[in-house]
Amino acid sequence: MSFPILSFLTFFPLVGVIFILLRKGSIEVVERSAKNIAVLVSLVNFFVSCYLWSKFNPASPGFQFVEESKWIANFATYKMGVDGISIFLVILTTFISPICIFAAINSLKKRTKEFLIAILVMQTFMVGVFCALDLFLFFLFFEGGLIPMFLIIGIWGGERRVYSALKFFLYTFLGSIFLLIAIIAVYWNMNTLDIAKLLNTKIPENLQTWLWLGFFISLAIKLPMWPFHTWLPDAHVEAPTPGSVILATILLKISGYGFIRFSLGLFPIASHYFANFIFVLSIIGIIYASLVALMQTDMKKLIAYSSVAHMGYVTIGIFSFTKQGMDGAIFQMISHGVISASLFLCVGVLYDRVHSRLIKDYSGLVNSMPRFAFMFVAASLANVGLPGTSGFIGEFLVLIGTFKVNYIVTIFAASGVILSAAYSLWLCKRVVFGQFKVNNSEEKLKDLDFTEIAILFILMFVTILLGIYPNIILEPISSSVDLVVKNITTIK
Fold this sequence. Notes:
With 492 residues, the protein is mainly α. The chain has helices at residues 5-22, 27-55, 84-107, 112-131, 135-144, 146-156, 161-190, 195-199, 205-222, 231-238, 241-266, 268-294, 299-318, 323-354, 370-384, 390-405, 407-431, 450-468, 471-489; strands spanning 64-72, 76-82, 362-363, 437-438.
């Protein structure tokens, strides 16, 4: 394909930003134009990513749609490409972005134009990080995403938005320093930053350990793994609803992608050495985060700790070095993105009406908001991993793959499924069922409007579709996953 489709997907949102900035007129006219442009740009990008998917060859394990040109002489090249592992993360990004834009238009009451600009800039960095085939280019996209998310939390967040934004920035920026040092070390030892070349080059064993640790610190913070997770609940609670959706759906998945692409791809010997270490941290994260979720009084914080627990399955699946485990990890990333978006949007619906996220302020919403109750319970059951939903497929594959390697790890990981059911069903019982009451008032709440129903229905449709027919994702990623598993297992 001669058309630079990946560059288009990456930078087209910036074209929308330029048009928004150039629009003149009254505040109302500029705001309306900004909304129309943002919706149009995000939908175009989504349909282009669907076209990319239609042209993708699932039988080829290598990178496709490769674009390459000279950039920084003798150091870095502008190189883009996708394989089975990254293409669905690109599609997830372009799928979620218009949903966040519609949610922002429906709920935000101030500085909507600036917020839409931040989301479009964020989309550029998120798509770019999954397409970059040069380590320096990857780092620029990886770091660039901090800025719009920092602004989203710091400007449009809750009462403690400044504290949460700074905590988010400092944690992730500190981890990125280690990543930058590791990338520099790769260049000076291998004389290239081309990811495709590095994947086919054996990095010296004595160097792999230190490089693996440099990448690990950065990726573990951004995932986040226990004990690097403490920034996430604060960021989620204070971020506006679309910001929480982007954070849970896309940003956390960058680290899962990084573990597969770099930790396993570039440092396979070190990955084997540290596999048990990852298992221990992941199990602690699953159990600890699930228990803490049970103690929460804030719905957003409960869902945030749920995300920490579910990401533990991703790292366990990746470092099981099995086909089923890695398939499950990638599927879990996509599934969790869709399900967590549904949950955060449901909480956003309640907050828009009552301006409270406290569980104790709600009871019996099924009596006043039956459509909302249906969507919220469905999303919660998918989060539990109910068979027939996408949440079941990812966790089931991870547990099957890990059982081949270490059945003890599987047993401990499976306990997270029980705990997930406990906190999710407890939340539903308190909020949805029982005698109707909102903030000690019996005044009825407005049920979901058309936009809210459309957004949540689309997300629920995808959740059930993937749960019933998971091969939509599993078949296209198969050959790329096979290649990674083959390369990592031959080292053992």
